[in-house]
TrEMBL record:
GO biological process: phosphoenolpyruvate-dependent sugar phosphotransferase system
Basic and acidic residues biased stretches: 572-589
Function: General (non sugar-specific) component of the phosphoenolpyruvate-dependent sugar phosphotransferase system (sugar PTS). This major carbohydrate active-transport system catalyzes the phosphorylation of incoming sugar substrates concomitantly with their translocation across the cell membrane. Enzyme I transfers the phosphoryl group from phosphoenolpyruvate (PEP) to the phosphoryl carrier protein (HPr).
Residues covered by the Phosphotransferase system enzyme I N-terminal domain: 7-130
Organism (species): Haloquadratum walsbyi J07HQW1
Cofactor(s) recorded in Swiss-Prot or TrEMBL: Mg(2+)
EC class of the enzyme, as a word: transferase
Family that this chain belongs to: Belongs to the PEP-utilizing enzyme family.
Compartments, as annotated in UniProt: Cytoplasm
Sites where the protein binds phosphoenolpyruvate: 290, 326, 475-476, 486
Catalytic activity annotation: L-histidyl-[protein] + phosphoenolpyruvate = N(pros)-phospho-L-histidyl-[protein] + pyruvate
Pfam families per record: PEP-utilisers_N, PEP-utilizers, PEP-utilizers_C
GO molecular function: kinase activity; metal ion binding; phosphoenolpyruvate-protein phosphotransferase activity
Protein's UniProt name: Phosphoenolpyruvate-protein phosphotransferase
Length: 589
């Protein structure tokens, strides 16, 4: 039998093989034609809806608790959003009118939710993924109303590879990594909940394979390669032997090149589960904490106290490593309902990142800064809630997203200083308690910017006067340099970090920082590609941050490289005029 390969989007750089199991949830409505309206007792149907809603709420609360314990608090928050949908007044009134006009409760739920689902489907990025959440809530209600059994994903046989049209948050919450070897879905993108779960749990997964996946028969032998983004049906013995064999030698110590240049290899995180994975994979620190993840999938922003706890725990997880927290990067494909973002024709070119933090979200920004500075101070002195005499060094660095002017940097910096001095003043006013003798100095943290717009790359020489570090965000830098939207498959190759124009933007940035006190790192996807490590070291980067699961491979690539060899490679890359040339310089050893 010859093996067959299907391509999709790999979401976690691990692979595995197993037996295909199709997950096909019950059709939403078993009887699509509703009975005649005059036969319906509207009051009884409304009461059925109210009871089903109550049951759905208890189920969701249980799932929330289970997910918080198994994966993490942030992942569990999606269920809060589902509970919120259940109580949404617009949905409630839609169901009520449908029931009043003679629809059975199941049909009233189906019709009302479908309207909202269609609206979200018409949007892009994370708003579109909200449609998944609504489908999930709709199907739950209909299942309860029609007394059907729920398909149980938690009890699949060991080594199952789950195949599905899509996996909702409720589905993914049921996945047991001890039984599930991996999964592949017809639909879904890198930022879908399923993808985020897969990365957090280091579960091999490929999403967005398309309808060709439907040709895979249940019980087939199958492999999922989350690095290459391929699903392999009937893998040959050679392929079988290769999968799951990512040579992951985890190194918890920091590493240097073969000729002794230290390179910091850090992890990108968004949730508390990611922080745990980062530690397990031997990351030296956190090179990008995508703080906006704390704000997504919930009904209102996290309080200062909640943020404080999360940041402090991140800092304490890496007592000897640097923890770079990127301030809120909302807008673009990351939408938040409660922030009432404007409708924009080109949200990636609109009010996003630092533009919002210095504009409509200024208060949120200040709250975030307060939480960060307090967490850093208390982590360092071992004080505050739960603090003892232990002293862990909260090595906080604050980083701004989507910078394109010098003024944005100076304005944000003066805001940090003001917030820091306000904390000190407030603490100074309150010196009557037992903590008064503790060192409450609020240090201004290390301060940096992401280089992810062409403007910031061009302004890099001047930016070095204002910041301690640059972190190059190749995901956005490639999109903006190449004018090729990052989530659009049609321009995937054009928007690739191997384009010579992107290489030149990176080169320009690193050259600008040479001979200054500003160090340069990278936290875009390119940093996690071990075949690019040599080129990046040759360019002069000293820090690379990536998905935690890529840390072991990149650490090994660092140790196999010498700076002199790497610099020779860079000379060739500088001459490159095509993507193919840069690609030919990959280090695929
Ligand atoms: C980037 O743009 O490269 C980056 C790391 O940030 P994000 O992917 O969160 O936009
Ligand atoms: Mg970015």
């Amino acid at each position: 039998m010859t093996e067959q390969r299907l391509n999709g989007v790999g979401v976690s750089p691990v692979s595995a093989s197993g037996t295909a199991i199709w997950y096909t949830p019950e059709p939403t409505l078993t009887d699509p034609d509703p009975p005649a309206p005059e036969t319906i007792d509207s009051e009884a149907e409304w009461n059925r809806f109210l009871t089903a809603r109550q049951t759905a709420k208890s189920e969701l609360q249980n799932e929330r608790e289970r997910t918080a314990a198994a994966v993490g608090e942030s992942e569990a928050e999606v269920f809060d959003a589902h509970i919120q949908f259940l109580a949404d007044p617009q949905i409630e009134s839609g169901v009520n009118s449908a029931v009043e006009s003679g629809r059975p409760a199941e049909h009233a739920v189906s019709e009302t939710f479908s309207e909202f689902i269609e609206q979200f489907e018409g949007m892009s990025g994370q708003m579109a993924e909200r449609a998944d959440d609504l489908r999930d809530v709709r199907d739950r209600l209909i299942r309860i109303l029609s007394d059907s059994e729920r398909a149980d994903l938690s009890a699949v046989p060991p080594d199952s590879v789950i195949l599905a049209e899509r996996l909702t948050p409720s589905d993914t919450a049921q996945l047991d990594p001890d039984r599930v070897a991996g999964f592949a879905t017809v639909a879904g993108g890198r930022t879908s909940h399923a993808a985020i779960f897969a990365r957090s749990l280091a579960l091999p997964a490929v999403v967005g394979v398309g309808t060709e996946l439907n040709t895979v028969e249940a019980e087939s032998a199958i492999a999922v390669d989350g690095t290459a983004g391929t699903v392999i049906i009937d893998p040959t013995p050679e392929t079988q032997a290769a999968v799951g064999n990512e040579s992951v030698t985890i190194q918890t110590d920091s590493v240097s090149t073969a000729d002794g240049h230290p390179i910091e290899v850090a992890a990108n995180v968004g949730t508390s589960a990611d922080i745990q994975t980062a530690r397990e994979y031997g990351a030296d620190g956190i090179g990008l904490f995508r703080s906006e993840f704390l704000f997504l999938d919930r009904a209102e922003p996290p309080t200062e106290a909640e943020q404080y706890e999360t940041y402090r725990s991140a800092l304490e997880s890496f007592p000897d490593g640097r923890v770079i927290v990127r301030t809120l990067d909302i807008g673009g494909d990351k939408q938040i309902e409660y922030l009432d973002l404007p409708t924009e024709d080109n949200p990636f070119l609109g009010e996003r990142g630092i533009r919002r933090s210095l504009g409509p979200d200024e208060e949120l920004f200040k709250t975030q800064l307060r939480a960060l500075l307090r967490a850093a101070r208390d982590a360092e002195t071992g004080t505050g809630t739960g603090g003892g005499s232990s002293s862990s060094s909260g090595n906080l660095a604050v980083m701004l997203p989507l910078v394109s002017t010098i003024e944005e940097v100076t304005e944000a910096q003066s805001m940090i200083e003001t917030v820091a001095s306000n904390i000190e003043t407030a603490d100074g006013d309150d010196t009557t308690d037992a903590d008064s003798d503790l060192d409450s100095a609020v240090r201004t943290p290390e301060f940096g910017v992401m280089i992810e717009t062409p403007a910031s790359a061009f302004l890099a020489p001047e930016l070095t006067d204002h910041v301690d570090f640059f972190s190059i965000g190749t995901n956005d830098l490639a999109q903006y340099v190449m004018a090729a939207e990052r989530g659009n498959d049609r321009v995937r190759t054009l928007g690739d970090y191997q384009q010579p124009a992107v290489f030149r933007a990176i080169d320009t940035t690193v050259r600008a920082a040479e001979g200054t006190d500003t160090w340069v790192g990278m936290c875009g996807e390119m940093a996690g590609d071990p075949s690019m490590t040599q080129l990046l070291i040759g360019l002069g980067l000293t820090e690379l941050s990536m998905s935690a699961v890529s840390v072991p491979q990149v650490k090994s690539a660092v140790q196999e490289t010498t700076v002199s060899e790497a610099q020779t490679l860079v000379e060739s890359a500088r001459e490159a005029t095509t993507r193919d040339t840069i690609e030919s310089l990959r280090d695929d050893r």
